[in-house]
Amino acid sequence: MKNRRDFLATSLAVMGAGTLSGKTMAQTPDPAPMPVTQPYSDAAALCAMPGNVATARFPEGFFWGTATASYQIEGAWNVDGKGESIWDRFSHTRGKVKGGDTGDVACDSYHRYAEDIALMKRLNQKSCRFSLAWTRIQPDGTGAANQKGLDHYSRFVDALLEAGIRPSCTLYHWDLPQALEDKGGWPNRDLMNYFADYAGIVAKALGDRVKTWAIFNEPWVFTFIGYQQGDHAPGLKNGDLAWRAAHVVNLAQGQAFRAMKAMSPDALIGGAYNMSPGTPASDSAADRAAVARFQAVNELFLYPAIHGRYPKAFKGKPPAAMGIKPGDGKIMRAPLDWIGINYYFRQMVADAPLRQSKYVGYNSWMPAEGPLTYIGWEVWPRGLYDIVMTVARAYKLPIEITENGASYADGPLPGGRVPDARRLAYLKAHLAELARAIADGAPVRGYHAWSLLDNFEWSHGYSQCFGLTWVDVRTQQRILKDSGLWYGRVAASGRLDV
Ligand code: FCB
After folding, report:
1. Low pLDDT (below 50) residues in the chain
2. Is residue 24 part of a domain?
3. What is the number of domains present in the chain?
4. Tally of CA atoms within 13 A in the half-sphere of 56 that contains its CB
5. Quick check: is 498 in a domain?
6. Residue 353 pLDDT
7. Is 342 a pocket residue for ligand 1 (Cβ < 6 Å)?
8. Is 403's C-beta closer than 6 angstroms to any atom of ligand 1?
9. Nearest C-alpha neighbor of 140 from the set 109, 177, 174
10. Domain that holds residue 243
11. 278-280, strands of its sheet edge to edge
């Protein structure tokens, strides 16, 4: 089973048209190996200033939150008129997901959301980041809304507000209606208008109560991993299609932004972008310049929204496969109100010759200087400081951390407690680095731990657990882990030494 670490290496190599020659990619079996150089409990040692844990403070009104996504938790995949999504199709296809796992039931949150909100309340949460399943609202992606789907999310939002929790709603966390994939999926330019129709429907239905929105979750991941690398739905392996999908997603982001503002003028609209700070592989000017190009890929869906064009940092012209037309810059442009950053790991970056795509020109890979989590991702807390400062300097917009978290396989002891010291150390170290960024002037107003619940982790199925809450997928029993209980105290006090 390939994982995200492999794909990053392979797909960025293709994007950058370089080779991995001279670089030995660490092979990451699933499950991942045990720690390499640092004991897990020492995550704070990987902070630039480990002592910061005791002094870290967060602003009044900080949005302490957790994040989830529709397909990963809801289940009820064919209930109340919901249509089939590409993740339903993908997980129902033999060999695509580890162990044959599916999201058919997942955490059954479609039926158990009141229980989930009670957990958030117990953790003193101020913000809940969740996503809508497009197929509950428009079963085949176009046409009239399915009232039952809208009613479900309306009840969910009301219950959050009742609990004093801010709803932060993501329109699209990867579960495209299969009917639209059958029309060509994201590489089809028509999707920008279908998506804008959907965005307008939900802004109209929920915009009186939901004020904070993210349009796309990790557009780089669902375009390049879905259409080029093939480990995510729809599982295609075509680099040209991925670049084309990326451009259509940029167009769709702009169209959706305008459709939502038309329905709900006071909506605060942003996006949740996966970003890794790049560390130059050497001190050479070439490698340092490669990091700027790598950063431009971090911003592949942010820069066009703000500036109405693609970043100039790349070596060549945008690939012809993107199908850019005159006037597209204006369509892509969407003056976002805020920026969401999903941070999981940093990457090393080296200059590479332009060959295939003639565009990006670097190689990148994940180092293993810090310990690895169970999914094989390096723990590197100071990377959160680095990426937040980079984005804060470049954009001058409010920032929220929309995802950050770690996979470890701790389960309940007899008696029920779930001692997950490594996740607690991970969160503490990352939050210390975030507090340092805030102290240095970064306008960060919220943090969302991924995730409230152990859930369906895409092609890894249920084998990777990121939750603050342990979930028994057979009985749906939920138990707060030690890290969750600690996070609840942090949310109540704004301090990490609790
Ligand atoms: C992010 C995804 C999220 C989850 C975490 C672990 O890339 O947005 O759904 O899979 O990784």
Report:
1. 1-3, 5-7, 9-37
2. yes
3. 1
4. 28
5. no
6. 83
7. yes
8. yes
9. 177
10. 4-493
11. 278-280, 347-351, 362-365
